[in-house]
């Protein structure tokens, strides 16, 4: 590899990934490097990433973005979690809230105490102890309290927003910081002697040279795959959905502070409420459903006037073999795609960018940094992959060929270990440094009705009558705190109405 100092960075692609990268690199690298971004209006962007997880707030804060201003500009609403309907069995419903459940006691996880009472016949769902869940279901929202003693400090939030407007918003941030935007289509990529990228040529004849190239060209992977042939790990045997159809509809009610994921015959349907409209889509598997059937089902299950033509998208769930190959780093859909069930794509974009900034080759390329970057990114993708598979594998449904396949499919060993451990002992295998941590796994494992055979023995150190009283109090504190919260729409009106 040619070991040059990085003076020129070229980003190919101006979707969310491209502009998030441009905004972050320009902020962190200042004037050390010249940053150009090439995008093709003719090709356009995928434009459907509308739901996020709480890490997005940290990314925006690092860019110095004012949250209310960003929310106004992107018609954003607050998001406290995702509700899953009909996933375990038809008629079942649970939420994955971005929230703690109750309080741990004597060094033992709260859910172990809940399990004991559940085994004794108490039917209170664990979600009754989650301030995030209780608020979401009552359509309430207030920013979390900063006082750690308050129960209202025990949840997090993310956003639903218009992804196209988010890209435009970040474009302004990046251009203000000196990023140069070049409109045009990359038609050729030439390689240097080391097999890395030397320059990209546009349809207009313009040639753009650089030392570091960032591929944000979406599913096409213009640099990382078409030019560098990096290769792809296919995840479709575990995550068989390969298509989606999306439509926008008018809002017929105040926006809910949560995303909905409703299982359908061959996949699932999303509902994402923004301030000015609702995003809807059916993620499905072509092997079991035609495009026409998917469109038909989607249109039957949306509310309000349909504002856009149904748009079909195809994808291949998986990831690149390497995320950083020679002098090219891939960010966004060009790096791989894990279907949108847990709204993780934008999160993976921000993680890619922050890891690149941490391992930035200031002194020229160093293979050890590249290997470490790849190791960390592979880990991230694998973690999300396993969390997503969990939702499918633990279904009890076999009413359609799609669900029968999911229920019976082989799953990665790391995931089956986690499921078995939970079933036998109630413990969740260590995941503190993962994207989804203890509470997230707990929400889905219990939501999908996996009940552990036992609870932690230390639970019995508290007398049962006393435990019942403590649990009753915890539930009361949650209910009382949520009762005093404003509703979601009021909070939007107060801070960020678009
Ligand atoms: P794109 O938006 O496709 O942008 C690619 C860019 O590259 C464009 O600017 C294009 O013009 C440019 N380009 C391509 N080829 C060339 C060329 N030859 N020359 C010049 N420019 C070129 N994410 C979430 O976080 N939450 C969600 O709820 C969510 N839902 C999704 C639902 C579906 C069905 C799909 C498919 C994705 C979803 N995503 C979601 C993912 C999210 O949409 C993407 O991660 C995000 O939009 C980033 O896309 P991107 O910028 O990588 O690619």
UniProtKB/TrEMBL annotation:
Q: Which InterPro entries match?
A: FAD/NAD-bd_sf (IPR036188), Flavin-dep_Halogenase_NPB (IPR050816), Flavin_halogenase (IPR006905), Trp_halogen (IPR033856)
Q: Which Gene3D superfamilies match?
A: FAD/NAD(P)-binding domain
The residues that hold L-tryptophan are 342, 346
Per its UniProt entry, which superkingdom is the organism in?
A: Bacteria
| UniProt keyword annotations, A-Z | FAD, Flavoprotein, Nucleotide-binding
Coiled-coil portions:
none
Q: Any idea which GO molecular function terms this record carries? A: monooxygenase activity; nucleotide binding
Q: Which Pfam families match?
A: Trp_halogenase (PF04820)
Protein's name according to its UniProt entry: Tryptophan halogenase
């Amino acid at each position: 590899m040619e070991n040059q100092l990085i003076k020129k960075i070229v980003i190919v692609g101006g979707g969310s990934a491209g502009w998030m990268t441009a905004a972050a690199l320009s902020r962190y690298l200042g004037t050390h490097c010249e940053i150009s971004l090439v995008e093709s209006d003719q090709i356009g962007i995928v434009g459907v990433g509308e739901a996020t997880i709480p890490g997005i707030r940290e990314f925006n804060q690092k860019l110095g973005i004012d949250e209310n201003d960003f929310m106004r500009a992107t018609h954003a609403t607050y998001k406290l979690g995702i509700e899953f309907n009909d996933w375990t069995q038809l008629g079942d419903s649970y939420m994955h809230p971005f929230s703690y459940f109750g309080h741990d006691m004597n060094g033992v996880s709260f859910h172990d105490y809940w399990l004991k009472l559940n085994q004794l016949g108490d039917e209170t769902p664990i979600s009754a102890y989650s301030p995030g869940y209780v608020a979401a279901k009552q359509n309430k929202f207030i920013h979390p309290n900063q006082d750690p003693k308050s129960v209202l400090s025990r949840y997090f939030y993310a956003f639903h927003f218009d992804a196209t407007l988010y890209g435009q918003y970040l474009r302004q941030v990046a251009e203000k910081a000196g990023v140069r935007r070049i409109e045009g289509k990359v038609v050729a990529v030439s390689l240097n002697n080391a097999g890395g990228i030397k320059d990209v040529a546009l349809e207009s004849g313009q040639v753009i040279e650089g030392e570091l190239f960032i591929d944000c060209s979406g599913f096409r992977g213009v640099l990382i795959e078409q030019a560098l042939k990096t290769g792809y790990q296919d995840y479709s045997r575990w995550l068989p959905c390969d298509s989606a159809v999306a439509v926008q509809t008018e809002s017929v009610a105040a926006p809910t502070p949560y995303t909905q994921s409703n299982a359908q015959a061959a996949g699932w349907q999303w509902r994402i409420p923004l301030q000015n409209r609702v995003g809807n889509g059916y993620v499905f598997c072509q092997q079991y459903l035609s495009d026409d059937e998917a469109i038909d089902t989607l249109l039957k299950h949306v509310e309000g006037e349909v504002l856009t033509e149904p748009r079909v998208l195809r994808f291949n769930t998986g990831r690149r073999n390497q995320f950083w190959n020679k002098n090219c780093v891939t960010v966004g859909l060009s790096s791989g795609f894990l279907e949108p069930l847990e709204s993780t794509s934008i999160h993976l974009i921000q993680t890619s960018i922050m890891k690149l900034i941490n391992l930035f080759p200031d002194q020229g390329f160093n293979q050890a940094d590249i290997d470490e970057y790849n190791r960390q990114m592979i880990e991230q993708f694998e973690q999300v992959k396993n969390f997503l598979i969990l939702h499918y594998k633990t279904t009890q449904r076999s009413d359609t060929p799609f669900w029968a396949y999911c229920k019976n499919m082989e799953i990665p060993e790391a995931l089956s270990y986690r499921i078995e451990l939970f079933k036998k002992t109630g413990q969740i295998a260590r995941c503190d440094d993962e994207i989804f941590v203890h509470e997230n796994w707990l929400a889905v494992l219990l939501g999908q009705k996996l009940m552990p055979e036992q609870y932690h023995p230390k639970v019995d150190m508290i007398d049962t009558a006393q435990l019942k009283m403590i649990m009753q109090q915890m539930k009361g504190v949650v209910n009382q705190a949520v009762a005093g919260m404003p509703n979601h729409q009021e909070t939007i009106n107060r801070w960020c109405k678009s």
